[in-house]
């Protein structure tokens, strides 16, 4: 769990480095063009990744506010 903050690179890589590969209209997923679906999917995944990092980061132990 020491390197849990390295997960912060995943949204950056997914959104910026692989965006040219996802820059197309077809296939439509959930009625969205593929590029829009790619961006929405990474927004959702980024939230999940940030939640995982917050839960497992040792710096956040004992900082719960009541």
Automatic annotation (TrEMBL):
Please verify whether the record's keywords include Membrane.
Answer: yes
Ranges annotated as spanning the membrane: 34-54
Keyword annotations from UniProtKB, A to Z:
Membrane, Transmembrane, Transmembrane helix
Pfam families documented for this protein: DUF3311 (PF11755)
Q: Which domain of life is it from?
A: Bacteria
Query: Among its keywords, does the record have Transmembrane helix?
Result: yes
> What is this protein identified as?
Membrane protein
Specify the species: Aneurinibacillus migulanus (Bacillus migulanus)
